[in-house]
Specification:
Number of domains: 2
Order of helices and strands: EHEHEEEEEEEHEHEHEEHHEEHEHHH
Structural class: alpha/beta
Number of helices: 11
Strand content: 15-25%
Oligomer: single chain
CATH architecture of the largest domain: 3-Layer(aba) Sandwich
Shape: globular
Amino acid sequence: MAGLVLCEPIELYNILNQVTKLSRLTEPNYLCLLDVRSKWEYDESHVITARRVKKKANKYLLPESVDLECVRYCVVYDNNTSTLEIVIKQEEEDDNNDDRPGLMPGAAVECGRALAHLTRHPVCILKGGYQSFSAMYHFFRTQKIIWMPQELDAFQPYPVEIVPGKIYLGNFRQACDPKIQKDLKIKAHVNVSMEAGPFFVDDADNLLHIKIEDSPEADLSPFLRHLCHFLEIHLHLGSVVLVFSTLGISRSCAAILAFLMHWNEQTLKKSWAYVKKCKNNMRPNRGLVAQLLEWEKVVLGDSVTDILDPRY
């Protein structure tokens, strides 16, 4: 039995926005997103790709064709469950309870427990439920129930979220998409590529353009202090920043890693693990990894991470 874990809204957001060549939502065994709210609530709106779980005779009925044993992420949500603990609920219908509270699990937790024995990975319970997620990511609400394979193929992921509500990591296409800028309330760009984007042109306060090639010979080091200063200023101002490169895999990831090492005064190893969790296909080239090791010396006074480890 894999058990249950709480899933923060940012985690589900990032799960929904993972890519290989296409969105990972196209993979049948990647994500099973289950909505345990009432039918009318589900029909009114739900998270994209979510399927409703019906309940009959106090048993949760999985949608057809779902094989949880093969699924990497199983995420369950209700309206607002925020804990895995049993919650206190008043049993109003019992006249003999002397106003003593009864103990009831939230619907998502109850469903998650029923499914946990079917999965290899822990069942994720969305913290704050649909209320929290839809308030933070209103653009991922839908009334669409059936997704055809070609529709999932055409789904355009959003940038992943690195610092909650403040710093996003993406690619050049996402940086050129006005809807994404509006939905995420982007107020500044860090462009780590040779291409020039359409936003914040000639606006040095809100655009940092680091022109380096996507090559192991590219030198990011001279820009790292300015990069960190730029991001710090916008964090203090409360501005939302999108950091991007052409594909959003190498140069922009290296920039994000350097900032997290500086901002949190932490090792490359710890920063790497965090960004990898946010963006599965992160892969800075070997030249940039070596520069990040040197940056670790600057930040911490010594190099701690072993970049010969295969994960780097």
